Amino acid sequence: MAETFGSRELQIAGAAFHETLSTKGAKGMIADSISEWPVESGVWWIQTREPRLARKLSRRSDTRLVAASASGGFLRVFEIRRPPSFVRRLIARYKAANARFRDLEARTMRERSRQSGMTAGLMKSEKRRR
Question: Higher-confidence residue: 2 or 108?
Answer without folding.
Answer: 108
